[in-house]
């Protein structure tokens, strides 16, 4: 609740396993610290897409939260990440 995932839809053939998201009312760095406290690595900022974050009005808000999912990511890690994201949204 309160999160917006940016980029193509999850059913798109052009979707990469990297998520860029924002949480309404929270700075990306705040969310990143909560994820880190739960042993989840993420990045925050503009990720070399400075102009894109500026055009979307996100640069002045700290950019986005970026999470990468790979073939070796375990279901338990996804569950842990979702729980930490839920914690951050409170």
Task: Jot down its keywords.
globular, 90 residues, four-stranded antiparallel β-sheet, alpha+beta, 3 helices
Percentage of residues assigned to helices: 25-40%
Order of helices and strands: EEHEHEH
Oligomer: single chain
Q: What is the terminal-to-terminal distance? A: 9 Å
Going by helix content, strand content and strand pairing, the class is alpha+beta
Major sheet details: 4 strands, antiparallel
State which percent range the strand residues make up. Answer: 15-25%
Main sheet strand line-up:
1-2-4-3
Uncertain stretches of 5 or more adjacent residues = none
Secondary structure tally: strands: 4
Morphology:
globular
How many individual helices?
A: 3
Radius of gyration: 13 Å
| Mean pLDDT, all residues | 94
Notes on the structure:
- With 90 residues, the protein is of the alpha+beta class.
- The protein contains three helices and four strands.
- Strands 1-2-4-3 form a four-stranded antiparallel sheet, covered by helices on one side.
- Helix 1 (28-37) crosses helix 3 (75-88).
